[in-house]
Amino acid sequence: MRPATYEHEAEAEFLKRLFSNRDGSLQNTSFGLLGPDGKKTLSRGGRSPQMVWNNSKRMVTALEESAGEYKPRKGKRSLPTVVDLRLGLNVAASDGLPLVVLIASKKKDASLRKLLAELAWSDGLIAGAHYVVLRDHDALKEMKGHKASRQVQILKPDAYGQSAEIVGAFDLKERKLEEHAAELFLLAKGEPKDDRSHTRNGRRRGIDWKSLLPITDSGGRKR
Amino acid sequence: MNLLQPTLPLLALLMLWQSGSLTQAGPTQGAQISGQDQASEARSLSPRVAWYTSLDQARKDAARLNLPILVQSAAPQCRSVPGMW
After folding, report:
1. Which of B62, B26, B64 is nearest to B45 (CA)?
2. Do A179 and B36 touch (CB under 8 A)?
3. What backbone phi and psi angles, to 5 degrees, belong to B82?
4. Which residues have C-beta within 8 Å of that of residue B84, sequence separation ≥ 6?
5. pLDDT higher for A221 or A216?
6. So what's the pLDDT on residue A147?
7. DSSP line for A75-129
8. What's the Cα-to-Cα distance from A114 to each of A79, A148, B16, B56, rounded to whole Å?
9. Are A50 and B82 an interchain contact pair (Cβ–Cβ within 8 Å)?
10. Strand partners for B81
């Protein structure tokens, strides 16, 4: 799993137990391997994979050994969602991936999530997008390409994840959804970025991300 | 966050290999392929990790499916500019 470091209080506490500064505060990144209960530690924690495993060979060995200790149970995976649209746009922009928005009422939430999860974990689409669930279309109305009648909207975030263009939309009962979604995912894929120019241009434009929690890593503070 | 960049391809390969989702790249050379095939081809050529981004969801699925959890946290901002890890 890859939680965003400073965006959720309970997750921050969890990450601090995995790895933190000497004073117990969060660093920008953390790595580690845990048992299926999310509590048992299968590796030490660290700021990077190198810090935890030294090299890729050791990492592979550790992952193989840990995977061998647990016999997977059969079952379907849930839809992996980002907590809200604002963070979803940022995470999707950071990865250069589409953001898939499911609009679902409380009553239909579980059934629609289940349908979309099957699509999200399908061989052709796995890891091809991030997902957010909203109760209504309000936050999407101003976006170019919005179609209020459709359950699923495929967003192409701008480079900074501030807004997005909607490249397509569909309902989950449509036929040949995987192929249709794959085509839309390609349209909504982000362009490669250069970190220096991205940051320089972002600062010139006054684009500033306010994390939910204070940044406590000296390397990650605003300079 | 330059520290992470060299490690991500490795993680992607490992995670997709574990989930059995890393597909063999490419049809037979010279074969005609449809637009749909091109789309799935383009996706399969860039293996990635299918991350859970929520702790709650990841722990529930890991417990239910009895799978160990590889944790990576990162901040989606570079010097307070979003859109970059």
Report:
1. B26
2. yes
3. -75, 170
4. A94, A193, A195, A198, A199, B1, B76, B77, B78
5. A216
6. 86
7. -PPPP-B-SSHHHHHHHHHHHT--EEEEE--TTTHHHHHHHHHHHHTSTTTTTS-
8. 7, 21, 22, 17
9. no
10. B78
| Residue type, position B70, single letter | L
Give the gyration radius of chain B's Cα atoms: 17
Q: What is the pLDDT of residue A219?
A: 65
What DSSP state is assigned to residue A136?
S
Residue of A nearest to B40 (CA): A124
Report how far Cα A11 is from the mean position of its chain's Cα atoms: 14
What whole-number distance in Å separates Cα of residue A48 and Cα of residue B71? 11
Q: Which of A63, A90, A109, A126 to mutate to test the interface with B (most CBs of B within 10 A)?
A: A126
Greatest Cα-to-Cα distance within chain B, rounded to the nearest angstrom: 47
pLDDT of res. B46 = 60
Euclidean distance between CA atoms A172 and A150, whole angstroms:
9
> Cβ A81–B39 below 8 Å, yes or no?
no
Q: Which tens digits make up the pLDDT trace of A165-193?
A: 999 999 999 999 999 999 999 999 999 99
Q: Which two tokens stand for residue A37?
A: 């209960």
Alpha-carbon span A172 to B72, nearest angstrom: 31
- Report the amino acid identity of residue B77: Q
pLDDT at residue B45 is higher than 70: no
* Cβ pairs A/B, distance under 8 A: 240
A199 close to B (CB below 8 A): yes
Distance CA B50, CA B17 (A): 12
The nearest CA of chain B is from the CA of A146 a distance in Å of 22
Q: What's the rounded Cα separation, in Å, for the pair A48 and B72?
A: 8
Which is higher by pLDDT, A204 or B9?
A204
d(CA A112, CA A171): 10
